[in-house]
Amino acid sequence: MIRALLLGLLLFVSSCESNLPLKNPVQDAVRANPLNDTSRDPDATEPLRPWRRLDVLDEPVATVPWEQAPQYMGQVVLTEGKVVGTHNSGKACFLNFKEEWEGQFHAVIFSRTFPDFPESPETYYLDKTVRILGKVGEHRGAPQIVIQNPDQITVVD
């Protein structure tokens, strides 16, 4: 890291002294990378791109009430509903949108992310209308959204 900074500083100083345009060794290395050369493959239309980040959610395909969220299995949705029941097992906190919660859509916050949320999420979100952004999945036959960070849930009222 220090070596790269010193090299960059040296290149900058030498280009300033000689009035030459500043060269960027990183850009030169990218241009020289054979993976970015499309001339070898007649079917290639553009250089390779980096993979999509998996830690960033896609835009929601729909904004739906919680009752309709299960229809979007495997897709990212923005859903809204009133949390009428909660349960914190110590390993996970479940936010339920229906009193008879078994087999029904719910949101879950796992214990590894508890420090990121308000203290006692089971109490904080109870009896509040919330909007949740996330990918609809399934666990033991029940549709759910796993809330991995507080940015995924907003208290409406």
Word description of this protein:
- The chain has 157 residues and is of the alpha+beta class.
- It is built from three helices and eight strands; from the N terminus they run H-H-E-E-E-E-E-H-E-E-E.
- It has helices spanning 2-18, 25-32, 121-124, and strands at residues 62-65, 76-82, 85-88, 92-96, 106-110, 129-139, 142-146, 153-155.
- Strands 1, 2, 3, 4, 5, 6, 7 and 8 form an eight-stranded mixed sheet that branches.
- Strand 3 and strand 4 (92-96) form a beta hairpin.
- It is globular.
Q: How widely separated are the two ends? A: 49 Å
CATH class of the largest domain: Mainly Beta
For the largest beta-sheet, the strand count, sense and barrel status come to:
8 strands, mixed
What is the count of distinct domains? 2
- Going by CATH, the architecture of the largest domain would be Beta Barrel
Structural class: alpha+beta
